[in-house]
Predict the 3D structure of the following.
Amino acid sequence: MTPAPLSIPPALADTLARAVNVVVFTGAGVSAESGIATFRDALTGLWSRFDASALATPEAFAAQPDIVWGWYEWRRAQVDGTEPNAAHRAIAALAGHVPALTLITQNVDNLHERAGSSNVVHLHGSLHAPRCSRCARPAAFPADDAHAIAHEGRAIAPPACAHCGAPIRPGVVWFGESLPTDAWQAAQAAAEQCDLFLCIGTSALVYPAAQLPLHALRAGATVVQVNPAATSLDGQAHYNLRGAAAEVMPRLLEAAGF
Ligand code: OAD
């Protein structure tokens, strides 16, 4: 039996229709329906197949740069080989219906941008912003675009920095590294000033990012979760829309009359 379509509470539809300053905060679940693996979903999650602690750390890159670079190039190839989904597109459209919208993502893919969102705050960096591991200069991907042939688990030697010769690294935040200061400060300010905080597709387990919905709650915002599963936020969010982002987000905008 197909489940009844999710109904949007009228009070929430009204809150969105009247919202002035909206924050959208996304995690890996918003890209799930584009075929990009989340981190912690059992079986399908990236980490069911790889040991992230063996790959997503500065120490791992120093010890085995080819494996780490190859893994990220494979992830980049996954992203470049797919398209934004209806959730990304609805979030991009929402920006045109409210006076102010800040999009904060934990994701390192570029699907929000490719759906039309701008000024995306990437708390955990981006697969598409490689930089030198020594002088930190932004780097370009090699012309031969090795990622096009990247296969899961294939080792690929990272290119050398054109300026200092050190290996180029992925532009993502690794375990043990701090979040980009500007991104984190912008995210905190947005969470503390918004009247509506939409938390979409995150397990809300990783700090400090997971503090953001709590900042919004303390500032008096209405907090909404969109997730097919329960998270630690369920008891604090005002609304828990139990469904897939690509299904829920278009319905949420429709209910608000957007
Ligand atoms: P997780 O894999 O921890 O959580 C993904 C969430 O998305 C889960 O709560 C799923 O229930 C939910 N989900 C799955 N499919 C969905 C769908 N179609 N629509 C909506 N939600 C769906 O990923 P994140 O919460 O993003 O950090 O993980 C946060 C951080 O942990 C990542 O940014 C990464 C990792 O450590 C760094 O790499 C620094």
In short: The mean pLDDT is 93. The pocket of 2'-O-acetyl adenosine-5-diphosphoribose is lined by residues 27-29, 32-33, 38-41, 45, 56, 106, 124, 173, 201-203, 205-206, 226-229, 231, 244-245 (CB under 6 Å). The chain has nine helices and eight strands.
